[in-house]
Amino acid sequence: MRTFGLMKGLPVISEKSGEHLGAVLDLVIEGDKVLGVLVKKGTFLKQAQFLAIGSIISIGPDGIIIPTSGCLERNGKDKEGFTLSHHSPLAGKMVLSEEGDSLGLLNDVYFLEEVGTIVGYELSDGFFSDLQDGKKVIKPGGPPAIGKDAIIVNPDTT
């Protein structure tokens, strides 16, 4: 299990050539799955490319290994789905229970890197509350309903 916060900025390296292909920029999410990551390539144009979660060989503390540069798809920002902080951002959106209770603001996601299944949402109640009580993590009981202004989840209470 991994959070996106630990992946952001990691270098993406080709296993075949050992070439540095870019750095992790954002996560692409659809429902309760992580489809892949956006990889920032270059320093001037900062072209984002999409890397499917299934193309990743391994994710370590110092980098992500993929088979070849051919795994990166051009125009990553045009990929369908939501991201945490770029186009269609989810971070900072209000998270509500199905009963209408406010759970907090989405800060990060926990997911299984092998298959991309989201297993938890890290929520914030604000800076001072986070300092005092820490951030909370909820397990989803199913796929969320993601809207323009809020994310509605059914927290798993087991």
UniProtKB/TrEMBL annotation:
Pfam families: PRC. Transmembrane segments: none annotated. InterPro entries: PRC-brl_dom (IPR027275), PRC_barrel-like_sf (IPR011033). Residues 8-68, 88-156 form the PRC-barrel domain. This is Photosystem reaction center subunit H.
